[in-house]
């Protein structure tokens, strides 16, 4: 079974007031941290960049990943998902599924991603999602039968719209790790305080 991972990292981090992708966790950036966790679970990793793409690309230099730049990143997360799917299919056209994750969920680890991939293989379900704070979301794995749905997303729509469209295809994993996402300076400060 071949699972590719798409890391969405194209946003402008407007609520953070600076590039969240480059914020440090210990001695690595959020972007590099997410990439390291993904590479522990798959050899097919695509990072979708957009705002500040040149700066972020430097951060990923010498990392064995594929970079896809979404020049239309301002249109929304759906445009970045479509960019990532097209990019990963260009090098791995027969892939069984894709795992979509964000670069700003720092508690998501290789171990958790591997649990998701194992659940995907064991359940024979078409979609495996993370369940946290009363919702279903990413990280999430979509089988190749749902690639056309992802490629058909409205630019401003996220993967959740596909999850909600096919409830009978969904297997959910409780994931308190995924509940931590860093959108504001307060989020970042609170997270760093937990590491001390």
TrEMBL record:
It comes from Pseudochryseolinea flava. GO terms for molecular function: nucleotidyltransferase activity. This is Nucleotidyltransferase family protein. Coiled coil: none annotated. Keywords: Transferase. It comes from the Bacteria. CDD domains: GT_2_like_f. The lineage of its organism: Bacteria, Pseudomonadati, Bacteroidota, Cytophagia, Cytophagales. Transmembrane segments: none annotated. Residues 6-166 form the MobA-like NTP transferase domain. Pfam families: NTP_transf_3.
